[in-house]
Design a protein that fits this description.
By secondary structure, the protein is α/β, with parallel strands linked by helices. The protein is 29% helix and 16% strand. The protein has one domain (13-287): Thiamin diphosphate (ThDP)-binding fold, Pyr/PP domains (Rossmann fold, 3-Layer(aba) Sandwich), CATH 3.40.50.970. The mean pLDDT is 95. It binds iron/sulfur cluster. Iron/sulfur cluster binds next to loops.
């Protein structure tokens, strides 16, 4: 009569996953490398979302960042140089229910993997793509990458890189069927986590460019952003990356930005006086390739074999 419950049974989940369940081998990146923060952010999201580790796949190409799958306690595929995205697309095509995280670097994605990058964006398969942008080839010890700033002294251009750097965000916003583009920096774990979570929640391919510190080879490339936090432009919108109030003191420069406005997103991506962080563009109505490749996924083994037999019989004499 007082509204008291008779049944005080507490329903516990059959399995509860801790942070440690997503930890793989000990990370062997250099001390101070931004990759550590990105790894932690992804593991936290997996834990918070209680993703069964066997339902998570991390895929990479080649480079420092591409060691990512070794450090996740989930399934993983350490692929070939530039080939993270086609491998991830293959996983998603046959197992659309899996949660796929792609770790790729500026060399891996924007140079040898550039063709795959364009078409992966167009295919828009549901996965989270993290571009670890440290402006250098780190694993092979300091060669100029597509995003190395002009004038940076490297082992391939000791007198300084000759060409202006490629802007991966601007490029991605120009690809057909792009559905989610965001930017963040590894040195602010709160914004990094919030951005990757927003990307994870997106239905389609979410592309996140992360400025990633490489204290070993490009320790000065983000100096202007780190020494003058006013150059970090925080994007705000009710449909954008949630901005923690604590960021007010760290990054005081703000701008309202509607992520459905492609023109404004392209203008923000092109700015070189500030670096915009947050959600630049999102359109969840873009078609996803895996929605067209589900045919046959629910077939039994017998039906598949019968189908194969029928196909082969067409060539029998
Ligand atoms: Fe990180 Fe640079 Fe070391 Fe590679 S070389 S692990 S990117 S700090």
């Amino acid at each position: 009569m007082f509204g008291l419950k008779r049944d005080w049974t507490v329903t516990l989940p059959e399995r509860y996953f801790t942070f440690e369940d997503y930890e793989g081998g000990e990370a062997r990146w250099c001390p101070g490398c931004g990759d550590h923060a990105i790894l932690t952010a992804v593991q936290r999201i997996c834990r918070d979302e209680q993703l069964p580790p066997e339902q998570v796949v991390s895929v990479s190409g080649i480079g420092c960042s591409s060691r990512f799958p070794h450090y996740m306690g989930t399934y993983g595929f350490h692929g070939l140089h530039g080939r993270a995205l086609p491998v991830a697309a293959g996983v998603k095509a046959r197992r659309p229910e899996l949660k796929v995280w792609v770790a790729t670097g500026d060399g891996d994605c924007c140079s040898i993997g550039a063709g795959h990058w364009i078409h992966a964006i167009r295919y828009n398969m549901d996965m989270t793509v993290m571009l670890f942008d440290n402006a250098i080839y780190g694993l092979t010890k300091k060669q100029t990458s597509p995003t190395s700033p002009k004038g940076l002294s490297t082992n391939t251009h000791p007198r300084g890189a000759w060409l202006p750097p490629l802007n991966p965000t601007q490029a991605t916003l120009g690809f057909t069927n792009v559905s989610f583009v965001a930017q963040t920096v590894d040195w602010n774990p709160v914004h990094l986590h919030a951005t990757l979570k927003k990307a994870y929640e997106h239905k389609g391919l979410s592309f996140v460019r992360i400025l990633q510190r490489c204290p070993t080879y490009t320790d000065k490339v983000f100096d202007d952003l780190q020494s003058d936090p006013r150059k970090i432009l925080v994007l705000e919108h009710e449909r954008g990356v949630p901005v923690d109030p604590a960021l007010d003191r760290v990054f005081p420069t703000r701008q309202a930005h509607d992520p459905s406005d492609m023109g404004a997103a392209r203008a923000l991506a092109a700015r070189d006086d500030v670096f915009a962080i947050g959600l630049l563009f999102q359109d969840e109505s873009c078609p996803r390739y895996e929605d067209f490749t589900r045919r046959g996924l629910d077939m039994s083994v017998d039906d598949k074999l019968a189908g194969l037999d029928a196909a082969l019989d067409r060539f029998a004499l």
